[in-house]
Amino acid sequence: MKYFNENLITLKCVLFLFFGALGGLLPFLPLHMDVVGLSKDESVIVSVVAPLIALLGPLVAAPLADRLASGGGGNQRSKTGRYLRVMLSLCFILATIFYWLLMLIPPIIRSPPNVTFMCDQQGGFVLQDRCGAERTCYNWGSSKGSVLVKNCIFSCNATTNYSGEVTTAYPDETDTFYESDYEDQLNNDDNSGNEVNPDTLDLSDYSSNRNFTGIVPLPHMCYENDKGESICEVYTEYSQPIDFKIGLTPNLDNATESDFCKYPFADKFHCRITDDVVDNLTNHHTEECHPIVVCQIHDPYNNSHSLLKRSQCGYDNISFWLYLFIRSVADIFPAAAVALLGAAVVIATRETSTGRGDVGKQFAAAALGFGIFAVIIGGAGDGKFLNAMICFTVLMLLAVLILLFDNKMPLSPPEWWWHTRCGLLALPMSSVRKYGLEIISLGVVLFLLGIFWNSIDTFLPWHVVKIPDGEPLLIGLTIAVAAIPAIVYFVYAEKIVDYCGHSNILIYCFVNYIIHHIGLIVTENAKVLLIFEFLEIFSLHLMYVTAVLYFRHLVPRKFTACGQALPVITHFCLGRCIGALLGGLAYSEYPDRDNFNSVHKWFTVAACITAIIYFLAYHFYLKPQCAAAAQVPPDPAPSVVQNMNGNGTYTPLRVYHNGKAKKGHFRY
């Protein structure tokens, strides 16, 4: 007979409040890292390290909870489940405190100085504004780094604020001559030219190519590779940015009266400038002219491996390290709380011999809270961290009050309710099959799903606010839209999982990630992206509840908390760490859109291959290996069974894992 369990109302409220708090905070943390002033590379480091440190939460809390559940012989604390409520309350309070500490970190005020790449026949150098009130210049070490140059032109003079906006006018095609003639001129170049004095540089007209009656000369930038071979890079209007691996020497001119710092290249480097170019430049400028090739440096302070990022003014390592430390510690407590809440739900729902509990119905409340508050913060709160933290704090405090004052929440240890439907004790724990191979396989699958999930989820807010019509509200809407079908799924989760099979649902999650990664590649519209984001969040709900139900069957009852910590460790910590590391490549390299598409293209291929391998491995190996075996009664039969049958004959019970009855024949 079905009935409504009033004792589970407060547990549903705690799940609603906790996951609502997470939904209103976690999706907007990447935007907060931008507000603090972290560079993209620094944000990637935080996103990689934080989940790795968060491992400590479930690794410590879950074994401690299982230990306290034994209660030293069954004391009052373990019988009422108070230990679990207190541990959850501490996790909620500490998470709130540490996330508030992120507000105290001083923002990094960066003042990126103007910088320009230049070279002539004598060599190459970087010209950069002096830093700060001290007007200092950076002292470079011996290491080399990347400098991406574009918009290269011939010019008479240049300053550090050249940005490449001025384009070069090209002559009519009918007046051109063969490029080989120009190459001959380059080869006959006597390399004579004047080195540019940075103190005399001023802004001039970058139009040196307008007056040529023949083929337009192109900047040739030459250097020696590691083998001593001379290589020349030619920049045209169709060229991608050229990546030079160079080292810089300290500023040659220490006079603070100069507005510039001049950093010559440490390696052999020069630019070819023909006589025609020199004549064209000097004949059309009344002032003294120093022929030179000037280039814009692409994203000098944020591009990965950029040599110049160390030299920008206002760079503050202290704020970065503080953010990394506080964020890593703060993430420990939600991770621990998720594992403990999973154990609490499994314990409170009192699964019986039929394999039915109310696990899915409890997590339906969690999905509802996760979706509602994400929309509220994304819309009304505009995704701002202060608004998110106020909401997070209120929800967490309400959850703590419920946990501390509700003594009727059914959280007694698992050993108290491990029973059959008719109330008889089950067979001893030694008769339960060992599911080590299946647990390991499931852990690997959840780890891989975590990689594909977090390669999207961690940096998605950056992508959303960048695309046309993108705004923080869209981030919340993606979570809310996916929560609606997830709630319906959760209500019937146990029946659906039992019918479809745990592994088949996980394979379906891989398929969803294939579709989502393809969607990120082809979609540049915010509203269309909403459809694909629905798949990603819905897959997350499917994965987690399926994992909770799966580990409920596989792990012995005295390790309930440890069993529920396994999906948190593999998916939300390890998978999240590697996913952030690989997904960050889509945002930390140049060019952004091309690299973004390339990274997600490889993720699509990887998800497809993984889904096929898992499908074949499961249906042709794991499924036959892990199929439930026919029940063989223990010899001798337990005394409880002998007493029950009177004459000593054995009547098979519906045992937890082994029997072919409904209880032991789940489709894994």
From TrEMBL:
UniProt keyword terms in alphabetical order: Membrane, Transmembrane, Transmembrane helix
Chief location: membrane
Superkingdom as given in the UniProt entry: Eukaryota
Record region (Disordered): 183-203
Cited InterPro entries: MFS_assoc_dom (IPR024989), MFS_MFSD6 (IPR051717), MFS_trans_sf (IPR036259)
Domain Major facilitator superfamily associated: 8-593
Protein localization: Membrane
UniProt topology in membrane: Multi-pass membrane protein
Listed transmembrane segments: 12-32, 44-65, 86-109, 320-347, 359-379, 385-405, 435-453, 473-493, 505-522, 528-551, 563-587, 599-621
Annotated Pfam families: MFS_1_like (PF12832)
Biased composition (Polar residues): 188-197
GO cellular component: membrane
SUPFAM superfamilies referenced in this protein's UniProt entry, alphabetically: MFS general substrate transporter (SSF103473)
Membership in a protein family: Belongs to the major facilitator superfamily. MFSD6 family.
Annotated protein name in UniProt: Major facilitator superfamily associated domain-containing protein
Organism of provenance: Brassicogethes aeneus (Rape pollen beetle)
